[in-house]
Amino acid sequence: MEFANVYGAPPAELAALSLNARQFSPLSPGADSLESLEAGSLDGLVMLAPPGTIERRYAIAAALRAKKPGSPLLIMAPKDKGGSRLAQDLRDFGCEFVEEARRHHRICQTFSLGDPDAIAAALAAGAPRFVESLGLWSQPGVFSWDRLDAGSALLMQHLPALSGRGADFGAGLGVLAHAILTSPKVTQLTLVEIDRRALDLSNRNADDPRITRIWADVRELKSLSGLDFVVMNPPFHEGGLENHGLGQAFIQRAAAALRTGGQCWLTANRHLPYEAALAPLFKRVTSVAELGGFKIIQAQK
Questions:
Q1: Do 137 and 269 lie in a common domain?
Q2: Full pLDDT tens readout for the chain, 301 residues
Q3: What CATH number did the domain enclosing 222 receive?
Q4: Taking the model in full, what pTM does it have?
């Protein structure tokens, strides 16, 4: 069976997609929003389910609500990243299903619509909410959704009053944007973020006319140039595995976006070898602080 609608990136050997399949993952820039679809409007879907319990159940509930009666929903996940829980999720939603195991994945298929009350409860549990401890709007599944990331917290302690035009690469919920925009000398700040949910929430968390938002993968960003500063807390996991290349790509994009003399402020786990990536691209690289397994680096182009 070929699917015309997809959520995430299910392995090609486990799911057949039609040419130009419609994408619904919030982590795919330009994708459509599954939760915004009219109920009963979607002609089937294949999903690589998120690993987090609340996020996964939210995504499945959104798919069940959106799909047409009698259309297929094929859900899969690695056994150690939520796959072992898929069957119970579908039972909780009141769905009849078949299950199989292939290539270290659990795969479930259902044609059921599920129990409307159970679906509504999962959608409510995974919806955006105001997190008192953060003082911000957030949502399960977004990076560091219910706590302040320690690396960002350390960077905010050492970030100087910046000025001019700048960008926050991997801006998330807008935590660093708050700190940056306390400086009246900042004239423009571009938030670049791959997670649509986080970018949408940053509208509530950092409502400032100086902000521009771009839903994009920083690694593919080519539109920014001549910036006075770039601030970032780059990710270093992809698909659940550590990937130093992510942060190195962020550094390369920062160097390309900055003017001569512009500065990059970076926070990272202490063990990540970013100094080697910064050295050939910047005139000066300075270690600013190290604490609790994190480090702050300032680099001037």
A1: yes
A2: 899 999 999 999 999 999 999 999 999 999 999 999 999 999 999 999 999 999 999 999 999 999 999 999 999 999 999 999 999 999 999 999 999 999 999 999 999 999 999 999 999 999 999 999 999 999 999 999 999 999 999 999 999 999 999 999 999 999 999 899 999 999 999 999 999 999 999 999 988 999 999 999 999 998 999 999 999 999 876 666 667 788 999 999 999 999 999 999 999 999 888 999 999 999 999 999 999 999 999 999 9
A3: 3.40.50.150
A4: 0.94
How many other β-carbons are positioned within 10 Å of the β-carbon of residue 157? 12
| Residue at a domain's end among 125, 159, 190 | 125
Enumerate residues 6+ apart whose C-beta is below 8 A from 175.
134, 136, 148, 149, 152, 156, 205
Domain identity same for 11 and 75 = yes
Domain that holds residue 24: 2-125
DSSP 63-122: HHHHBPTT--EEEEEETTTTGGGHHHHHHHTT---EEEEETTEEEEEE-----HHHHHHH
257, 227 in Cβ contact below 8 A?
A: yes
Q: Which of 100, 125, 150 is where one domain is finished? A: 125
Residues 224 and 254 in one domain: yes
In terms of domains, do 69 and 182 share one? no
Judgement on whether residues 290 and 176 belong to the same structural domain of the protein: yes
